[in-house]
Amino acid sequence: MTKVYSFVALLAFSSFSFAGNTTFLPEAKISADSAKTWNVGAGITQKLLHLNGEWVNPYGIAYLKAGAFLNGDHEVGGQTGFRYPYHLTGKDKNGYYIGAYAGHLESKWVDGEEKARLGAGIDLAYVLLSPERISSFSVGIGAGEKLEDRQGRVIAETEPRLQFSYTLSMGL
């Protein structure tokens, strides 16, 4: 029985030492002096006028957007996402970033009231990153949830749609 315990202990310790090997992580491309860690700003994503917060880390930029849609009853909406620096150009950390997002894509009238439609997608962004500010232009493709009214008529199908976005943020 002690041989079995020794073998189990050996397997456990070897898995811990393997877990410390971080070769599977993506390359850290953003240094600490490239930008402020926390940034706040504003922007527009399709018809969603929003305030946004961005967290810059060595592996990319995570963001959270919260605001209201410009059409209809100004339904509240938001998105969250992450962008990884794919190809950097020029000075600072300007370049092309690829990412994914999830949240509210649009608002539609359903049964006499405005409903925000949830969805998710991927995007390609050009980010101008400096120690003072982050400015990003992005185009994405995603799909939203299917919306139906009370009678079962489809108001919005689940189909691919483009999403354009611009944000400007300043470091804290």
Name the CATH class. Answer: Mainly Beta
Tally of DSSP β-strands: 10
Give the radius of gyration.
22 Å
The termini sit apart by 60 Å
**What is the helical fraction, as a range of percent?**
10-25%
- Approximately what portion of the residues adopt beta-strand conformation? over 45%
Number of helices: 1
Q: What is the residue-mean pLDDT, rounded to a whole number?
A: 86
Taking pLDDT < 50 over at least 5 consecutive residues as the criterion, the unreliable ranges are none
CATH architecture: Beta Barrel
Which structural category fits the helices and strands?
mainly beta
Report strand order across the widest sheet: 1-2-3-4-5-6-7-10
Shape from CA axes?
flat
Question: What order do the SSEs take from the amino end to the carboxyl end, as H and E?
Answer: HEEEEEEEEEE
Summarize the structure.
This protein is mainly beta and 172 residues long.
Descriptive account of the structure:
- With 172 residues, the chain is mainly beta.
- The protein has a single domain, classed as Beta Barrel (Porin).
- The chain has one helix and ten strands.
- It has one helix spanning 2-19, and strands at residues 38-45, 48-57, 60-69, 76-88, 95-110, 113-129, 133-144, 147-148, 154-156, 160-171.
- The radius of gyration is 22 Å and the shape is flat.
